[in-house]
Design brief:
The structure is a single chain. The chain is an alpha+beta fold. The protein contains five helices and eleven strands; from the N terminus they run ααβββββααββββββα. The strands form three sheets. It has a six-stranded mixed beta sheet with strand order 1-3-5-6-7-8. Strands 9-10-11 form a three-stranded antiparallel beta sheet. Strands 2-4 form a two-stranded parallel ribbon. A hairpin with a 2-residue loop joins strand 7 and strand 8. The protein is elongated. It starts with a helix and ends in an 8-residue tail after the last helix.
Length: 226
């Protein structure tokens, strides 16, 4: 068969079907609002900083997940807003191609709701993440209404996660809580401590140093001599 014959439209096959090559770029639409972007960056930044010494995970946002050689372009559920895959190599990727990643699907997915996507996130995507992806932990969050919900896969079906006394939801896969803090979803440790960004960590260290310097000055000790 010639190359032209291979690329020619095949009878009986919808031309909306992708026959993915070996090198696939992400094909997701732009994020709807700045707030959606900030939320995704925040989740990514905090987890990368918390797990900075680990090399066995992959986290990404608004990146296409290719999971079928007969992927349809018209389906818009292929790119979760934020997802984490565990037990894989930590490296940059152009997209997540399941058949090139030992068949691994995301272990955790977070969708950021909007007026145009909420129904899809709550129905179609939820069904796909449950039945096809078999993603263990699925969360959705609306940054405008602050609606926040989570599910854990139990015997093949999603069950609602019950919030703790602070309204946080436990991710079995991450070993972290997710909860709304100052209008955005953040990670919290098992004991309820906020997982900081690198900037927050630096700011906290600076404040601690300033307090120490002030204390030394009260004792008539020059901080520069310490």
């Amino acid at each position: 068969m010639t190359i032209a014959q291979e690329l020619a439209p095949q009878a009986g096959i919808d031309q909306d079907v992708i026959f993915p090559p070996g090198d696939l770029y992400s094909d997701e639409p732009p994020l709807e609002t700045e707030l959606h972007l900030r939320q995704i960056i925040l989740l990514f930044k905090c987890l990368e900083w918390l797990w900075r010494d680990r090399d066995d995970f992959y986290a990404a946002g608004n990146l296409t997940i290719y999971y079928s050689p007969h992927q349809r372009k018209s389906q818009d559920f292929r790119g979760p807003d934020f997802f984490v895959v565990l037990g894989t190599e930590r490296k940059t990727r152009k997209s997540w191609v399941v058949w090139e990643e030992d068949g691994k699907y995301p272990h955790v997915i977070v969708e950021i709701l909007s007026n145009s996507t909420a129904q899809t996130d709550k129905e179609l995507k939820k069904q796909i993440y449950q039945d096809t992806f078999r993603t263990h932990d699925y969360f959705w969050f609306d940054p405008y209404t602050l609606e926040f919900a989570g599910f854990h896969l139990v015997d093949g079906e999603y069950q609602f996660l019950e919030p703790n006394e602070k309204g946080h939801l436990w991710s079995h896969q991450l070993g972290l809580y997710l909860g709304v803090y100052e209008g955005l979803v953040r990670f919290f440790t098992e004991v309820g401590e906020l997982v900081p960004t690198p900037e927050e960590t630096a700011e906290k260290a600076e404040q601690k140093a300033e307090r120490l310097a002030a204390k030394l000055r009260e004792l008539n000790i020059d901080p520069d001599t310490i």
